[in-house]
Amino acid sequence: MLAAISVRHLYRLLREGNGPEALPNSLYPVEGVREWLKRRLLADVQVGSDGEVYNLDAERARLAKAQADKTELEVRELRGEMVRCDEVTETWSAMAGAMRSRMLSIPSKLAAKIADTARRVEFEDACRALVYEGLSELAADGLPERARARRDAHAGGTGAAAGADDQPVGGPLPAPVARGKRRAGRVPNEPG
Q: What gap in Å lies between CA 130 and CA 140, rounded to an integer?
């Protein structure tokens, strides 16, 4: 192999008439082959303004593939098969905010419907606790189950943690400090 050209490829170029000029005895002078290779290599290569050497055929192929990929994505978006990530995030954030507001308004609306005013506050607090419990489950981390599994599988990158060996960690606990007893003052607007 000479300058990234196999013997087989060289023979194919010679048959097509694109090879170096041969001597009458079907041999090729070294200088002629060197000049032919140089012309061939320089035809495919360009030096950019940054001093880098580029193969124009490879760069054209890379550009054509990138343009085809971009066009395919645009077509899929126009057909409604794909949606941009920022649009989905924006829409879901707005929906989640609206749902949270509605959910948080439920306890006060329900409490207003109870005739017994003494139990209204108790009912509203219990209902509010249930709503917050439900919202905290929804807001765990916002990831779909498959994405969460992938994240957890790759977290840390060191594998499973070592098991417990029942050995104490750290030093002895400091002795408790005795403090004076404090009494809470009366809270305004509190019955009793």
A: 16
Give, in degrees to the nearest 5, the angle at Cα 35 between 29 and 41: 135
Q: Which pLDDT score, from 0 to 100, does residue 21 have?
A: 74
Of 38-42, 67-71, 100-104, highest mean pLDDT: 67-71
Integer Cα distance of 29 and 26 in angstroms: 10
Q: What is the pLDDT of residues 118-161, one digit of tens each?
A: 788 888 888 888 888 888 777 666 666 777 777 788 775 554 55
Q: What is the DSSP string of the chain?
A: -BTTB-HHHHHHHHHHT-SPPPPTTS---HHHHHHHHHHHHHHHEEE-TTS-EEEHHHHHHHHHHHHHHHHHHHHHHHTTS---HHHHHHHHHHHHHHHHHHHHHHHHHHHHT-S-HHHHHHHHHHHHHHHHHHHHHHTS-S--HHHHHHHHHHSSSS-SPPPP-----SSPPPPPPP-----PPPPTT---
Chain centroid, CA 110 distance in Å: 42
CB-based contact 46:56 (threshold 8 Å):
yes
pLDDT at 7 over 60: yes
